[in-house]
Amino acid sequence: MKAFFSEHQSKHAPALELQNGEMVPHAESQARVAAIRSGLGPLTAPSDFGLAPILAVHDAAYVDFLQRAHGDWVAAGRPGDAFPYVFPIRGRRPLSLSRIDAELGQYAFDCGTPVAAGTWETVYWSAQSALSALEVVMDGAGPAFAFCRPPGHHAGRDYMGGYSYLNNAAICAQQALARGAGRVAILDVDYHHGNGTQDLFYAREEVLTVSLHADPVTDYPFYWGHADETGEGRGQGFALNLSMPRGTGWADYQIRLTQAIERVQAFAPDVLIVPFGADTYAGDPISFFSIETAEYSDMAAMIAALGLPTLICMEGGYAIEALGANVAAFLAGFER
Ligand code: OKP
Ligand code: ZN
């Protein structure tokens, strides 16, 4: 399967994140690049679609902020990566603030998503890799893999969080609509709820968002991904959240995946986008499902059986030693 990746995507190298009260080495490390690459054949460099498809989904002031945040941080005399530490509570009136700390808090929802020196180039080219893979899919040339890094599914219209800055899957869903698709389904199989994606399309009936994830009562991102989140307005019924308890293995995951697939099938989309996280793996250091490497092929084969034009976007997966094999197993399931 054709896999898109730009060398610019190696640049993002966040040093630390705040996890359970400690600053720890960031899980979304540059080491993921070589690890994922080891599971892939030759990579194709993406085309440059420019900012327009990104701005069709994300707020212009937020996109501008992403480009200058690290520079502003350095100009303020700060060390390391640009980190937020204060957040405006919901409902606070819009304020036009320019101190870097105020801006970081405005645009972030957690302390795991710092803006580092190479962040913008990496996330820009990640989105271009996704758009390039979408083009293959829309041209009817079979499934394609967007080797995106860092993940994107937690990013919303004007916010970053969960290691995500630009929402690659959402950018592609919007682009698919612009290119003539009538309906797009997003089937998110990362361990964590795809809150940004859900939020972006919550009131839209032409984009179905389905997410399989760890119960947000126990797991990040806590505030989103509950079963009663089903969409609003015209989008009512076009968001589906299927959560599972910690410890879930393939036998139980499969049952939820079958439900998800049935919903996608009933929606009859023109294009399917699969945000894929290998963090459901038994050995993932920050997650708690117990799927094994070979089972990723079964997972993918079930999705492939839908017979839809399908774009796969890389999301999470932090077990460096198994990441290449897990990605390879998933992609192989599409080809069997
Ligand atoms: C990004 B993606 C747990 C901290 C969790 C954020 C996880 C972001 C995951 N102690 N930190 O969905 O793989
Ligand atoms: Zn994840």
> Compute the gyration radius: what is it?
18 Å
Taking strands numbered 1, 2, ... along the chain, how are they ordered across the largest sheet? 4-1-5-10-9-6-7-8
- How far the N terminus sits from the C terminus, by CA atoms, comes to 11 Å
User: Sheet with the most strands?
Assistant: 8 strands, parallel
Overall form: globular
What features would you describe in this structure?
By secondary structure, the protein is of the alpha/beta class. Helix 9 runs parallel beside helix 10 (about 320-335). It has an 8-stranded parallel beta sheet with strand order 4-1-5-10-9-6-7-8, with helices on both faces. A two-stranded antiparallel ribbon has the order 2-3. The model has no long low-confidence stretch (mean pLDDT about 95). The chain has 10 helices and 10 strands. A hairpin with a 2-residue loop joins strand 2 and strand 3 (about 20-25). It has helices at about 30-35, 50-55, 60-75, 100-105, 120-140, 170-180, 195-200, 250-265, 295-305, 320-335; strands at about 1-5, 15-20, 20-25, 45, 145, 185-190, 205-215, 240-245, 270-275, 310-315. The longest helix has 20 residues, at about 120-140. It binds {5-[(3-aminopropyl)amino]pentyl}boronic acid and zinc ion.
